[in-house]
Each structure stands twice: as C-alpha cells, then as structure tokens.
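Predict structure. Chain length: 342.
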Amino acid sequence: MRAALAQGCDPMVLTGEVWPKWRIWTRDADRFLDDAPLNKLTAPAGIPLSSFRAATLKSVAERVSKGPLPDRAVWPWILALGARNTKRRSGLQYCPDCLRDDRIPYYRLQWRLAWHVGCEHHHCSLLDRCPHCRAPLEPHRLHAEDGHMAVCATCRGDLRDVGAITPCSDDAMAFQDAGDEAIRHGSGQFMAHPTETDAWFAGASFLSALLRRANRSDAEALHVFLERMGVAVPELPLNPGTGVELLGTAERHLLLGALWKLMRTDLADVSKYLQESGITRQGFVSKGERMPDLFAETFAQLPDNARGPRKQAVRDPGQPRPRHEVMRMWRRLQRKLEMSQR
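Prediction complete.
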C-alpha cells in the first residue's frame, strides 16, 4: 500500500496489476501468503522471499497455537478483519502519535495482535475506528491523491487529527507486555507458574471466557469469587460467539485489564477463593470448554453438581425471547447492516 501511494497509484490498482486474476483484498494478506503470489513481488521489489514471510502473522500465530492453523477461520489472538468483498468490519488498530511521528505513516504488525491495546512508546490506547466518522480502518481502499496511509478511506479525514488521547491502563499494558514476553522467550508466568507460550495464551483464553460469562450471568458464586479476587467484571457487549479476536479495542482494553488481575495472582490464592465462593465444577468450566491443566487439582476440589441429561425445553413461539438473546440477535443484524451500507 505504501509503495502504491508513493508511486501515485491506488493500492487496489497496483495489486490488480501484480495479480490480475486474484483479488488479494478479499482475504487477510497479513496472515500468510503462499510462495507463488509472493514470488511475483521479490524481483520488482528487490526483497527476498524470507523477508516477506517474516512480515506476516503466521510465525506469531504458530507460537500462540502450537498447532496447525486453519486457512479461513479466526486464528487465536489475531484480530479478525471481518472481510466482506473488499470491505472490512474491524481488525486494524493504530496509534495516532506513531503515525504523526512517522516520516511516511505505516501500520505496525503488532497492531494486529489481540492482546495489544496500547502503544508501548506513547502509552496511549490504540484506536480501531476513524476519529471523525467512526468507520473501520481500510487503508487498501485509499486513492492515489490521499498520498499517505494516515487517511480514512471513508471520509478522507486525517487519522492523526484526534482530540484528547486516552491513556492505556497499567493493567492492560502489563498484560500486553507479558504476552509479548511469552512470544519472545517461548514461555511466561501464568499465576506464578512458568508456562509455555501456547499454554499461557490458552490459560488467558480460559480466564477471558470466565470473565465474559460473569458479564452475562447472574451466578452468585462466580461473582463472589471475582469480588474476592478484587476483579471488577467489565461491561462488554453480549455479541454471539465473538471471541477476543472480534472485540473492539475499547472492549479488549477493559477485558485485558481485568484479566491481568487474575493472571498475576498466585494459583494457591485462586484455589482458596474458588472454594470459599462455593462455585461448582460446572460453574467454573462451561460445558464443552477446555480447561488448562494448571487448574486440574483445583477443579478436583470443587463440588460436583452434575445432573443427568435433561429433556430440551421447547420454547413457546408466542412467548417473547429473553432480553440477552434479543440483544445478541440485534447486534448481529447491526454488523450485517454496517457492512452492507458502506
């Protein structure tokens, strides 16, 4: 994109010339590209294939997952673009101060990581929407006359022209730094236990799901446990099936700050508060959810409230749906309308 704008060309025009039979912007090119399309760039760009590979998210995602990555599905802890044709719903973030400091503005690879919510240099919260029109960031849709990448492709406003910058919370930045350390060194500290990178992120995902369940549930034992841990349940939207990879930056900021309060606690204290709260095994681990091995001993000490299979209740079509179900359906419809109207 920077190369196209520097040559006075639309990014989509340049990629159409390089790959005339392939619509690259209908997929997430930051994740991974096969060697065949990359080979078309090595000669004209004068950049070796290995450098192009290193500029993708695949190596980071493999350390997070430690297993095969799906071709199309969401990758754990990698922000999802939510692409519909060439339009995007989310997935990009930026620091306005970084773009302001750049001689030639550009997006950093780490801004695609779901555990990144703040700028490590300016200590401000990242933004994932245009500050003028609230549209998602779509630099591939810029035109030659825009000149650089710090421009909104929807309203043509300057992305660096923002009001007051929101500082990133210490807890959210601490989680971000810990995630980076786990990627760099192959391990990290999870509840005062040395843990390999993939297990660290799996544990973070498990606790994230626990917090989000508390956000939408009135289960007293779960709220008592979190209260004794000193964790305030973040107010998050009840989006259906949205993992951390699909949440906005502001929502992840709240979630990761609360998550860090759990992860920095000693496992012995967690076990103590779980037992004092009266939470059951079923309240701690949802059906079908994978629990990290680190919690196995704690889990065994919790009361078991397992019940036999129950006959599935048939909802009376004449009765109104529960509020949380209606809100999930409404948010799903809003996302579809947002994509279709741009």
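Summary: The beta strands are 187-190, 193-196.
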